Amino acid sequence: MIQQMLNIARREAERVMARRAMPKTGIVTAYDPDHYCAKVELQPEGVETGWLPIRTPWSGNEWGMFCPPTPGDEVEVGFQEGGKQAGYVKLRAFGDRLRPLSVPAGEFWVVHKSGSFLKFKNDGSVELHAAEDLNATVAGQANLAVTGKVVASATEFDLTGNVKVTGDITASGNIYDQNGAKDHIGHIRDVYDGHTHPAPGGTTNIPNQQL
């Protein structure tokens, strides 16, 4: 009698569990950017799901963290309370086809397929690389406090607006104003230092005070 009751209980438990969907691995087959959803081919069954919402660690009304999958990505599919009709896309995984980078333990890297990246290193440094243009828009004031030097290198710096400097300006080349309409400041200094004026009986000497 007891054994019969145990068998009934076991069959009932198996029947309930059979109705529950367990997390599965799948391959993304499509992505909808307007609704942030994806279709997934579940493995190993090869069955394609309908549109599933993609989970994110940070979300709001038209703001949050967005890192949508690409068709071909391997993802984990979860099911809310085990419901087969309540699937959602969870985490993604690296594998033999999608190879990971070699990232030191303790570091945090965000790397795009274009080659752009943001890396937080174990030594406290932060490395930013833009494979193409780097655009920043600041609605308020941009503040930069550096205890050492600011070192920048470019073929040209274009600034729009007034420039105020507290301290000296040292240039290895020439300095032009008015878009070079009056030549560079060094040329103006040379002209002043060597200029003379007509005077009775000849010309004046060059200025005693040189620039």
From TrEMBL:
Lineage, highest ranks first: Bacteria, Pseudomonadati, Planctomycetota, Planctomycetia, Isosphaerales
Domain Gp5/Type VI secretion system Vgr protein OB-fold, residue spans: 25-89
Protein name per its UniProtKB record: Phage-related baseplate assembly protein
Gene3D superfamilies: Gp5 N-terminal domain
Domain of life: Bacteria
InterPro entries the UniProt entry points to: Gp5/Vgr_OB, Vgr_OB-fold_dom_sf
